[in-house]
Amino acid sequence: MHLLRPEFRQALMLVCVSGVSNEEAADICECREGTIKSRVNRGKQQLLSILGYPDRHTAFDPRTGPAPNVTPRAHSALLMPASESHVLSVLIT
């Protein structure tokens, strides 16, 4: 998460991890709700890219395991603490 742009990280943490609504996150970040939605989406894409996934559709599926093209860096994400694992699961849903 620390590799993400700060505004993407903040939006992801508020909306995806803390469960804050887009409207509430917009108030906290002092921006428009559409900006929060964009930051969450871009943050998800950036984080998946950092982990070595080309897009959301080739990411880890708990039923079948990692996609065949998953890099070692992304495999290490599967061993992360539960809170970070939750973030990864949010990214692919």
Structural account:
About 6% of the residues have low confidence. This protein is mainly α and 93 residues long. The protein has 5 helices and no strands. The longest helix has 18 residues. It has one domain: Arc Repressor Mutant, subunit A.
Summarize this entry quickly:
The chain is mainly alpha-helical and 93 residues long.
Strand content: under 5%
Portion of residues within helices: 55-70%
Number of domains: 1
User: In CATH terms, what is the architecture?
Assistant: Orthogonal Bundle
Oligomer: single chain
CA radius of gyration: 13 Å
Euclidean distance between termini CA atoms: 18 Å
Question: Main sheet, how many strands, which sense, barrel?
Answer: none
Examine the coordinates and then state which fold CATH places here, giving the name of the CATH topology.
Answer: Arc Repressor Mutant, subunit A
Mean pLDDT: 75
In the predicted model, the low-confidence regions spanning at least 5 consecutive residues are 77-82
Total strand count, please? 0
What is the string of SSEs from the N terminus onward? HHHHH
- Structural class, please? mainly alpha
- Dominant shape: elongated
Q: Give the number of helices.
A: 5
Q: Class in CATH?
A: Mainly Alpha
Question: What is the strand and helix layout of this fold?
Answer:
Layout: H1 6-17, H2 22-29, H3 33-50, H4 72-77, H5 82-91
Helix pairs in contact: 1-3, 1-5, 2-3
